[in-house]
Structure formats: structure tokens, C-alpha cells
Amino acid sequence: VDGPAHKLLMHPFPRRVRAEFAGRTILDTTGGVLVHETALLPRLYVPEADLDASAFVPSALTTHCPFKGDATYRTLRVGERSVPDALWA
After folding, report:
1. Most buried among 54, 69, 75, 80, using CB within 10 Å?
2. How many whole angstroms separate alpha carbon 59 and alpha carbon 8?
3. Closest residue by Cα to residue 43 from 51, 33, 30
4. What is the pLDDT of residues 44-89, one digit of tens each?
5. Any bridge partners for residue 9, and if so which?
6. pLDDT digits over 7-50, tens only?
7. How far apart are CA 28 and CA 56, in angstroms?
């Protein structure tokens, strides 16, 4: 297929996706979008409204993608357990 060297393709992901961490549901969505990007594995993007926002705290990390723009990161924290930079937006 002719086109740019770097492509972004996306389509709805109609399945329900739930994620639990440390015994707590942190994500429950049926509104995900699967994004395919050149040279990367597909990633599931989900609406922020479907996340338990209280389980995520801002991180100092930021990145820039020339194709998708700027990203900020959040650390997942439930009780004593945490995953640094577990989410980007």
C-alpha cells in the first residue's frame, strides 16, 4: 500500500476490557480503540472516564511523538503497591 513511511491506523475495540491491580478494578471499558502504528505492537487507548482516576498520580515524565504529540505520564498506586509511569495521556 502506497503511503507515508509512518502510519497510524485505528479502529474500535468493541470488547469489554477490565483491569485489576492489587485487588482493585482500575479500568472497566467497552469504549476502547485499538491503534496500530508502524513498527510498534498495537496499543489499546481507552477513555479517561473509564479509569479509576484516584488510582493514578501524575508523574514527572513527559515525552513527545512527532506523529501523536506530547504525552504526560501517571503512576498507578493502590495501597503500598505502585507501577511508575503505568499510563500515558
Report:
1. 75
2. 26
3. 33
4. 999 999 999 999 999 999 999 888 899 999 999 999 999 999 999 9
5. 36
6. 999 999 999 999 999 999 999 999 999 999 998 999 999 999 99
7. 15
Type of residue at 16: R
Q: Which residue has the cell 498507578?
A: 76
Q: Contact at 8 Å (CB) between 49 and 74?
A: no
Question: Which H helix or E strand runs over 78?
Answer: strand 69-78
Q: Is 59 in contact with 70 (CB distance < 8 Å)?
A: no
3-state secondary structure 33-61: EEEEECCEEEEEECCHHHECHHHEEEEEE
Q: Which candidate, 13, 23, 17, places its Cα nearest to that of 55? A: 23
